[in-house]
Amino acid sequence: MKTITASSIAIVSAVCVAYSAPTQTVDAYDIVVANGRVIDPDSGLDAVRHVGISGGIIRAVASEPLSGRTVVDASGLVVAPGFIDLHQHAQRTVNAVVDALKAMDGVTTALELEVGTDDIDRWYAARAGKSLINYGASIGHIPSRIAVMKDPGEFLPSGPAAHRAATAGETADIAARIEHGLERGAPAVGFGFAYTPSAERAELLEAFKAAARAGASVHVHLRGGGDPVASANEAIALARESGASLHIVHVQSSGGAATARVLEAIAAARGRGVDVTTEMYPFTAGQTRIESALFDDWESYPDERFRNYLWPATGERLTRDTFAKYRRAGGPIIMFSNTEETVRGAAADPLTMIASDGGQMPTHPRTAGTFSKILGAYVRDGHVLTLTDALRKMTIMPAARLERRVPAMKRKGRIQVGADADVIAFDPSRIADRSTYETPAVASSGVVYALVNGVPIVRDGRVVEGAAPGRAVRAPNEGAETIQGRWKLIAAEDLRADGSVARYPWGRRPVGSIVVEGGSCYLQIMSSDVPSFGAGAQPAGEQMKAALLSTYIAYSGPCAIDAAGGSVTLKVEAAWRPDYVGTEQKRFFRFDNGRLIFGPAPNSVRGTGETLTRRLTLERQ
Fold first, then answer.
1. Looking at the chain, which residues constitute the CATH 3.20.20.140 domain(s)?
2. Which CATH number does the domain 485-620 belong to among 2.40.128, 3.30.9, 2.30.30, 3.30.1890?
3. At a CB cut-off of 8 Å and minimum separation 6, what does 415 contact?
4. Which of 268, 512, 527, 590 is deepest in the core (most CB within 10 A)?
5. 122-137 per-position pLDDT tens digit
6. What's the count of helices (H) and strands (E) in the chain, helices before strands?
């Protein structure tokens, strides 16, 4: 078996991770996770298996040993799909501390689907090529309302967006922002009824209808105060009338003592044909912003209620006076408002997924420890639910929630051939959360190994420094509809200056594919004579964000698609050969009988000053 250094593993995987190359016969996989107890809740597999990974894709799940350039011995460990967190706040550009905590909690995909953003393109562009784990955000009703109504709030509204109804013009502007966000590939639409209590039903219904037209789910924080069942039924009625798929966030937090009845209402709606799902996290305390509309009636609270609030910046329990002081300043507040019995009941219910509601900064233990706490305290120690059921709630259930809108999610949440290699290995006897309300930024224990898109992000229980293989979770967006998706290489040709054509520049069976998703484009070509790169290959610059790879050359950088003009342009930030860094590469595409012809000039004709054109013909996978 060939020895590859840790750094070269990350480099080779970084080049290959973005592609879904055709399955090929290989002497050795890039990585083999061997001897682990593989649990795949989607297929029901629960057995010792060997998982072969190449090019960022699971290529084999075998009962017999496999040969790998790198072999990870997972004896005694559970090998599972990486966890998918549908509710991790991420308004900050990149938060390496939070990403590392999520990775140590087994999370390989973290999505901001409740609050979301009002600018999808800007949000995704800020994270491209910089994220340890996969990322995504909804187009948010809350931030859209903040922007339109010129509210001073940065995360949650504290002015007019919270406290007054929108005018007809503002309602139209909010709806237009949501429509545009969906056109730009937002995977969902986020709502916080509790934070926009003055939003009228007609405004909410228009936003729900926009989601329904796009096939996007709506992720709703129920209205606060009053009867939680009535609040749930309000959201269910909007979903039924609009046709939108509904996801109710943190049911145990919004439901409180009425959580069991809220779950019954959800089950009843599902029985009537309404597409509604929900989630929970395993803590008795929640967290929000003290300046939000949730506390507009705080002056009427009895004095003893303030003892249920904790100010994480100082660790103090609040009084009426300190609550008033901190509300003027603004910031996160922790509220102890639930019972362990309620939380355990929500965890055991077959309807709930697991989602953290983690913060932009780790000021609540749920950010760092949600998934490990379920597996440790609730599965191993408390026997609240089985290991397989817990993993189902963390993997295939959240993946399935988004599949209609984001087809790429059909390749996540699974340990199956063809799935993305988002894979974790954890010790079921040791996995546990270690974060507390007093020390919330302590990493969980027990996750020994983790891959994102085939690249190691946790090795020997430690986060891999400098790794950034996370990819965008984004729906196909306008402007790239014709090329969006995965394409398999059919032919590769060299068009020479003298008019001759070399039809086999990469051998008779070139291996490669193009992937266009999430605003990035990836093109991989490997000679049939040289099926993989050597261990000493050293691409320049940062982790690749988009790549055009021809014979031994890779370009990488931000990529823009002009569907009308049939061109793809990228600024080269890194290259397989460093002399290309800083250049701008432009390649053109056209369609011919359902196939994509991709070359460096319009209609694959040589460009000015070029003596050689490489033309690729691909078909959709």
1. 83-289+339-406
2. 2.40.128
3. 38, 39, 40, 45, 51, 58, 61, 79, 80, 81, 423
4. 512
5. 898 888 888 999 999 9
6. 15, 33
